[in-house]
Write a structure and sequence with these properties.
By secondary structure, the protein is mainly α. The chain contains two helices and no strands. It is rod-shaped.
């Protein structure tokens, strides 16, 4: 296999690894943001009806994001990481065996 093809394999693996990291990190950042908003409402004390409704909506969003993180984002990220590592390893092995 040519050096150019090997470099492409490794580059594709690195790109997939970066995408997997972003897929893994995005819901964590979103959940942290929602938790921060909920904490601000808890610190406020007396809440208006609109703020109580906002708090309820944020709790539903938090539950949804946590479920999606566990059922979609993390498995997808792990799959992409496994594929990326396999592609990189294949590229490196091919380089030294060819």
């Amino acid at each position: 296999m040519s050096n150019q093809k090997i470099k492409r394999f490794i580059a594709v693996g690195i790109v997939l690894f970066i995408i997997a990291f972003i897929v893994w990190l995005y819901p964590a950042i979103t959940i942290a943001s929602i938790n921060g908003k909920l904490e601000m409402l808890k610190l406020k004390g007396n809440l208006t009806d609109a703020e109580k409704q906002l708090q309820t909506n944020l709790q539903y969003k938090l539950a949804w994001w946590e479920m999606m993180q566990a059922t979609l984002f993390h498995p997808l990220a792990m799959t992409l990481i496994i594929i990326a590592v396999a592609i990189i390893v294949y590229g490196i092995i091919t380089k030294y065996l060819a």
